[in-house]
């Protein structure tokens, strides 16, 4: 069954700092099977509008939305089901719990028409599923942020929805609570077999949660694939920037071959990539900061083959579990940002370093 979405919508988005509103065009197509799909992109890319169109809170201008074989919207057929006739579970950024209702009443709110015994069974099933047993008598004001989010999830899941829509639900929670809830969401998806659409602008959240990632940029789907495909084989510069490729260079000339692949030349340097650039004269390329290996300077490590360079450390930023180190390569104006786990950092490393990059980690994109 699953979900098929193909929609177009134009709407006005707020201009910056009081400027005139801009007309924003949303044009997306994707499918969701029995899986957890993350729609990933910057704020303002159309993520929330996409969810609202699926839920029936906004209306596309054209296209279709089909969920488990049921047509929610089809512009050609004139079908546009009202929200109450669709069956999504929707969790908003701000939880949207009813403050005057206790946890019990919040969770069973969508179970109108159920008999009392069945409703009670479903309540305790949701309490167990979300690990919130014992909280049913409390009010939202008496709950922590993580507890509120679990109650919101329980309320959304209680009516057995066809799809679960999650709009950046963990953005206001601290790191440890976010990690626990991510794992719970993944477990729920597997236990219930429900399609889940989860939107976020966090690369970490996208790669840790998703079975598949849909990258949305300026209202368009730029790439769709597994987290590894998207994060380690971005199709263009926009996706590369979104997924954290901080070392990006344009106009790399393809100048030859090497045993490991192809040789790129630019900024006075040559880099070897194992990406297939046959048939290309000039490409854009980049390296993820965590895929750059730093070592204390040793002239014996330098080699004319592969991506091994000498350089000077320009700056070090402590990120806690890792350090972001800016290195300028000798004989060029290339500055690379390297993300090195603190525990792996060579304490003997000074301002002179050796940089090593595997050919497979030199990414090439449009």
TrEMBL record:
Q: Which Pfam family is one of those matched by this entry?
A: ABC_tran
Q: Name one GO cellular component term.
A: ATP-binding cassette (ABC) transporter complex
SMART domains from the xrefs?
A: AAA (SM00382)
Which reaction is this enzyme known to catalyze? tungstate(in) + ATP + H2O = tungstate(out) + ADP + phosphate + H(+)
Catalytic class of the enzyme: translocase
Query: Which residues are in the ABC transporter domain?
Result: 5-243
**Which UniProt keyword terms apply here?**
ATP-binding, Molybdenum, Nucleotide-binding, Transport
This protein's membrane topology, according to the annotation, is:
Peripheral membrane protein
Entry-linked Gene3D superfamilies: P-loop containing nucleotide triphosphate hydrolases
Q: Which InterPro entries match?
A: AAA+_ATPase, ABC_SmlMolc_Importer, ABC_transporter-like_ATP-bd, ABC_transporter-like_CS, Mo/tungstate-bd_C_term_dom, P-loop_NTPase, Transp-assoc_OB_typ2
Annotated localization: Cell membrane
Tell me which PROSITE patterns the record gives.
ABC_TRANSPORTER_1, ABC_TRANSPORTER_2
Q: What coarse category fits the chief subcellular location reported for this protein? A: membrane
* Recorded family membership: Belongs to the ABC transporter superfamily. Sulfate/tungstate importer (TC 3.A.1.6) family.
Q: What does this protein do?
A: Part of the ABC transporter complex WtpABC involved in molybdate/tungstate import. Responsible for energy coupling to the transport system.
How is this protein named in the record?
Molybdate/tungstate import ATP-binding protein WtpC
């Amino acid at each position: 069954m699953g979900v098929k979405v193909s929609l177009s919508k134009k709407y006005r988005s707020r201009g910056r700092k009081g400027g005139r509103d801009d007309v924003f065009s949303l044009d997306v197509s994707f499918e969701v099977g029995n899986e957890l799909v993350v729609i990933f992109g910057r704020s303002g890319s159309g993520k929330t509008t996409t969810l609202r169109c699926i839920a029936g809170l906004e209306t596309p201008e054209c296209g279709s939305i089909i969920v488990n074989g049921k047509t929610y919207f089809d512009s050609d057929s004139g079908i546009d089901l009202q929200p109450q006739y669709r069956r999504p579970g929707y969790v908003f950024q701000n939880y949207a719990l009813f403050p005057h209702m206790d946890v019990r009443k919040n969770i069973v709110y969508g179970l109108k028409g159920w008999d009392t015994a069945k409703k009670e069974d479903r309540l305790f099933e949701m309490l167990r599923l979300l690990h919130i047993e014992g909280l049913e008598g409390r009010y939202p004001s008496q709950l922590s942020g993580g507890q509120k989010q679990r109650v919101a999830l329980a309320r959304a899941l209680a009516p057995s929805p066809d799809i679960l829509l999650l709009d950046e639900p963990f953005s206001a929670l601290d790191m440890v609570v976010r990690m626990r809830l991510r794992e719970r969401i993944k477990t729920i998806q597997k236990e219930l077999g429900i399609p889940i659409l989860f939107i976020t602008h966090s690369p970490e959240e996208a790669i840790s949660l998703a079975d598949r990632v849909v990258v949305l940029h300026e209202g368009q789907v730029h790439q769709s694939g597994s987290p590894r495909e998207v994060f380690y084989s971005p199709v263009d510069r926009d996706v590369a920037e979104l997924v954290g490729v901080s070392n990006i260079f344009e106009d790399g000339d393809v100048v030859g071959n090497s045993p490991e692949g192809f040789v790129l030349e630019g900024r006075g340097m040559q880099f070897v990539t194992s990406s297939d650039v046959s048939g290309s004269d000039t490409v854009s390329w980049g390296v993820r900061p965590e895929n750059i290996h730093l070592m204390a300077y040793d002239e014996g490590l330098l080699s004319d083959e592969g991506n091994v360079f000498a350089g000077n450390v320009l700056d070090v930023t402590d990120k806690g579990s890792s350090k972001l180190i800016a290195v300028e390569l000798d004989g060029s104006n290339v500055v690379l940002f390297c993300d090195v786990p603190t525990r792996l950092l060579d304490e003997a490393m000074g301002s002179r370093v050796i940089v090593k990059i595997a050919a497979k980690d030199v990414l090439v994109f449009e």
